[in-house]
Specification:
The protein has six helices and no strands. With about 110 residues, it is an all-alpha fold. The chain has one domain: Serine Threonine Protein Phosphatase 5, Tetratricopeptide repeat (Alpha Horseshoe), CATH 1.25.40.10.
Length: about 110
């Protein structure tokens, strides 16, 4: 029996097949894995999203959250530092602020 998450993953993978460079689909796949608690799969898909579109700031943020949940505080910190640098270069103050707040909470 398939779950709604399995159905969404299947739909997202089908969409990605038609456009292999669709960062939105990659991000969606990562989020579905994250919701299911599949940390390594989520991180791998967030990495693919970032490689495809480094300006996809939400991918940096959520990758760091999953890394922290998985117990990789050092990895989460590095991801946030890189994401903050990227968001700053893009002039995305909101993303910079959100990642900075997460970084502060991790380091506290």
């Amino acid at each position: 029996m398939s779950t709604p998450s399995d159905d969404r993953l299947s739909q997202l993978r089908n969409l990605l097949e038609s456009d292999p460079h669709d960062a939105f689909c990659m991000y969606g796949i990562a989020m579905e894995h994250a919701k299911s608690g599949h940390h390594q799969e989520a991180i791998a898909w967030f990495d693919k999203t970032i490689e495809t579109d480094p300006a996809y700031c939400y991918a940096w943020y959520h990758k760091a959250r999953i890394q922290e949940d998985a117990g990789d505080t050092a990895g989460a910190t590095l991801t946030l530092e890189e994401g903050i640098q990227q968001a700053t270069e893009l002039g995305d103050a909101h993303a910079t602020e959100e990642m900075g707040a997460l970084l502060q909470s991790i380091m506290s």
